[in-house]
Structures are given as C-alpha cells and as structure tokens.
## 1
Amino acid sequence: MSYGLDPNRISPKLFQVHPVEGDTVHVLRAIMGLYFTTIMLWLLGAIRGGPLMRTALIGEIVFMSGLAAGRLLDILLDGWPSPVLIAYTVAELLLAAWGALCLRKFAGMQISAQAFH
C-alpha cells in the first residue's frame, strides 16, 4: 500500500523516481489493488480453512515465488539492486518456502482426516 496510496512520497525513497505522475500513478495503484485483494484471499483462507486454505496457500506460493523469480532474473541481467530490494527478494523466497511447507502440512492433515471417515 505504501507506494500506491502516496507514490510521490514513497517512490523517490524506494525507486529514486521524481515525480510520479499520470499513468505511472495509475499502474502503481493498480498493483496496490492486486496486492490488497491477494492478501484478502490469503486471510480468508486462513480464517475459513478447508479448500479455501489450500487455494490461498497455492496462491501465496505462486505470488511470492513469481516475485522472487522476477527479482532473481533482474539480478542476473542487471546486477545487484539496492539493499531494500535484496531484502525483499530474500523475504519472498522465504515466504514461498514457508507456504510450500504449510501446503504440505495441510495436505497431510487432509489425508489424516479422510482416514477417520
């Protein structure tokens, strides 16, 4: 939400972009909306559980690994970014791995629950 709500305050600090105008603001706010709705899916999956939890976990894994893959490709093509973006890459890789572990645990719980029926 940081760069979507107030791009002219955050973007110069994060991206060294001055000023952010027109279509660029539109794109940043659209991305913010995508992130926000994706997070809502994750929260609903955590709260409701069941099949929605599985969907949310798969979505989290795809989302985080996709971001990390794009960042790793950028590192290979363009070199090392700023330290904050390196931290984002590490966090995204860790969150993707955590999601995969949770999905594996969730799948095991589903199999165990079916054995009792």
## 2
Amino acid sequence: MTVNRQQLAKILELLGSAHDGEALAAARRADAMVKAGGENWASLLGVPTSPGSALDAAPAPPQPAARRRSRELTSYEMLMALLQSERTPAEVKKGLRPLERRLREGDISDGDIADLRLMFSRYVTGTKVT
C-alpha cells in the first residue's frame, strides 16, 4: 500500500491554519495516512536511517476505530471525514471543496454547518436524518 501524496499534500497545507484544532487534526490525519500506507515519515521523506534506530522500526499498525468521542466534532473534522469516507459520493465530495476553502477562511454560515452535519450523519455515520 502506498501513500496518496497529492491528498497528503493537501492535508499538510492545513498545518498552517490559524485554528489550532484544524492544524492538529491535519497533523493527526497526515500521520495516520502515512502509517496506513505502510510507511514512516523517514522513508517517505527519503531520510536515511541507521539500522536499529527508532525511525527504521516497522510502522505501527492502524488503530481500530475509537468509540464515539465525548465531545462534538468540529466542522473541519466532519468535513475531513466526509471527504475521506468511501460512502460519500464523488459529486458530493466535489461540492464540498468550496466549503473547505470557506471553512479555512472562517467564512461559513450556520446553514452550511447544518448541511455539513446532515451530510456527515448520512454518509459517515450512516444514520438517516429526516
């Protein structure tokens, strides 16, 4: 398995966000992508390692999905989950791209957030909202 470098680059761009939660979520998502791809950061970046170093160790296996969080997900976390979900149709993902930009810029309306929550419930959690 390999790391989708274009997707990783987009996620890494969010590390410069003024919103600490977004930057942290991006860092965690990037790290999870690298490990899920069977790589580590040193190999991905082409950094030579000495035999037996911590960087040379096999990557940690992907962690099982955590139980439902006790806190509410941020709009950014819901958006990222929608974009990563295999259940989200391609045309919906395409429509979410402008929302991603507006979310980063802080130009998101309450209606957009409500739509985001509805799509998250439908495509990520699989619950039907009427």
## 3
Amino acid sequence: MERLRQYLKLRGLSLTKERRRILETICEMERRFNVDDLFFQVHSAGRKTSKATIYRTVQLLLECRILKETGLSNRQADYELASVGDFHGHWVCQHCGRIQQISGEKLAEFVRESSEALGFLTLGIQLKFVGICSNCVQENPTSLRKDVCVPFLKYAQSRENSGN
C-alpha cells in the first residue's frame, strides 16, 4: 500500500478509498485474475466501484510495478501481484487453456546465476511453455494426433529432408 501511496504522490494523485479497496481485493484473491474477475470480486464484497475505476487502478498498479501482466490468456489481459525475486513461469495447454505454474529454487537459482554472469539486473521473467496437458492427451488422443502431432511430424520431417 505504501508503494502505491508514494507512486500516486509523485503523480499528484491521492490514495482514494476505491483504489485502496481494489488493491486489498487483489491481495485477498492471491491468484491470477482479469478485470472481469476483479470487478466481480469487488462487487461481491458489497463495494460499488465502476469498471472504469478498476481499469484505471489496474493501470496505476502496473505502472508502479505492484502488478504484472502475465500474457497467458487469449481473451483478455491477466494480472498477478509482482514480487521482486519471485521468479516463476507457466505451462499453458493450447487445447483446454489450463495453466500450471512453474516455480522453485532451481528456477530462481538459474535466473540469479544467469543474471550475474551477464551483469544484468533481472526484475522479473516471463517464462511460458505452450503445449498440450496430460488430461487433454488422455481424453482426446485421436483428435490431438490428427490436429497437432501429424502436422508437427510432417513439419519436422520436411525440415530434416531439406537439411535445416
């Protein structure tokens, strides 16, 4: 909250009751969300806030790096709380849209070591693996083989035959 207050002060803005409530709601959610999710959550808590106010507040939270955009949804922007040193990524199923988070000490260690080796101050990462989850493979093996695997194998074979 203090970071937001300082950022708003630099911009000549104040920490309004609505902005405070929106940030509190985001912190309570503890998950990825989009503006519609946030709007629903704010209103289900009995707080009347316009969607325009939520959009503007989300933009301010992005600018002061309290939030980050995940880029995981094909529909609309998804957001999550940004934490310095909290390095994680996501696996995204292109068939059902399921998202699983990747995290752990090995990933954080890789980021730290790579950053040090390059002399780079890493503020965050955007790691996204795109594929098909095990549930979809088990539930739709025939259609996935036809729609995904066969075209990929034909592409791989054509690359192999052309010498690339």
